Amino acid sequence: xxxxxxxxxxxxxxxxxxxxxxxxxxxxxxxxxxxxxxxxxxxxxxxxxxxxxxxxxxxxxxxxxxxxxxxxxxxxxxxxxxxxxxxxxx
Length: 90
Prior knowledge:
This protein is of the alpha+beta class and about 90 residues long. It has a domain at about 30-90. Helix content is about 35%, strand content about 30%. The chain is built from 3 helices and 3 strands. The chain has helices spanning about 10-20, 40-45, 60-70; strands at about 25-35, 70, 75-90. Strands 1-3-2 form a 3-stranded antiparallel sheet. It is elongated and about 50 Å long.
C-alpha cells in the first residue's frame, strides 16, 4: 500500500466505471495469513509486490522483528487487506 493515497475500493470502482462497467459490487475485509515458517514468509515477500525492493539481507532486521512480534503457536500471523470485486457491463 506504499504510495496509495485513496482507498483501493474507491480507486477500483472509478477505474471500472470509467471503462463502462455499470454494475460494480466491491467488498473489503481483513484476513489473517499464517506462514508456518520465516522461509514461507520470505517466499511470499519475494513473489508478491508487497514491499518495494524487498531484499532478504538488507531487510533482515525487519524480518526478525516481524517474527518476534507476530509469531504464534500456529506460525507467523499477519493481517492483510482484501478487496473482492464483481462487475458487469449490463
